[in-house]
Amino acid sequence: MIDLYTAATPNGHKVSIALEELGLAYSLRVLDLSANEQKEPWFLAINPNGRIPAIVDHDEGDFAVFESGAILIYLAEKTGRLMPQDARGRSRVLQWLMFQMGGIGPMMGQANVFFRYFPEKIQPAIDRYQGEVKRLFRVLDGHLAKNEYLAGDYSIADIANWAWVRTHNWSGVAIDDLPDLARWRDQIRARPAVQRGIEMPPSSFDRDGDGEEQAKAFSAKVRNMVETGQSRSGGV
User: Where are the stretches annotated Disordered (predicted)?
Assistant: First the structure.
């Protein structure tokens, strides 16, 4: 049994999707990020960085793993699935996983802060981060024009990138002009395990769309966290 410590964020949903795809038994522990539960001593003993997601694998002597990318690699290697075992195939998956960890996630996270959460609208910052998100989306679209998935077969690289790309509207970045990225987004969205994973836990509103009133309430909640200096964990 695996305990998953998480919240309804892109980084959190990466891991719940992978667990659903792999059919692994897990229990869900949803942390209240607005109450700074992720900074409590009991959780810092699991993840010293105080962020979600994290797992504890009781089948492996209560082994704790933090950082969403590291968790995905661990689960893939544990099961021998969602990542090739040959060196070149494994490298391709890890390259696109690192693309998400170092690019898509951080840039969309900053776009969210300035476009949605920051109390003042600083247009140069909004333009900067939305522009970089769009550039990274074009990289994905160009690659997907020649490939069904990011690294050969469906893998943890697709899961990691998709969990963020699906929220592009929340970052204020359209993909109507990126047909291959849109095709890939819709293709992965149709997978039953993915549909289950993004409900573990469910978001307070549909980030695939707009849900204007709920979105406003969520933005106000996170804005308060930004203004009071609380850490936003897990790619809110």
Answer: 196-236
Quote the pTM value. Answer: 0.91
Q: Locate all alpha helices (DSSP H) within 23-174, ordered by sequence.
A: 41-44, 68-79, 87-99, 105-112, 123-144, 156-165
- Phi and psi angles of residue 2, each rounded to the nearest 5 degrees, phi first: -115, 130
The predicted pLDDT at position 26 comes to 98
Per-residue pLDDT tens over the stretch 58-86:
999 999 999 999 999 999 999 999 999 99
Q: Is 48 helix (H, G, I), strand (E, B) or coil?
A: coil
Domain 2-79 and domain 87-197, same fold? Reply is no
Residue 206: how many CA atoms within 13 Å on its side-chain side? 6
Of 90, 68, 87, nearest to 152 by C-alpha is 90
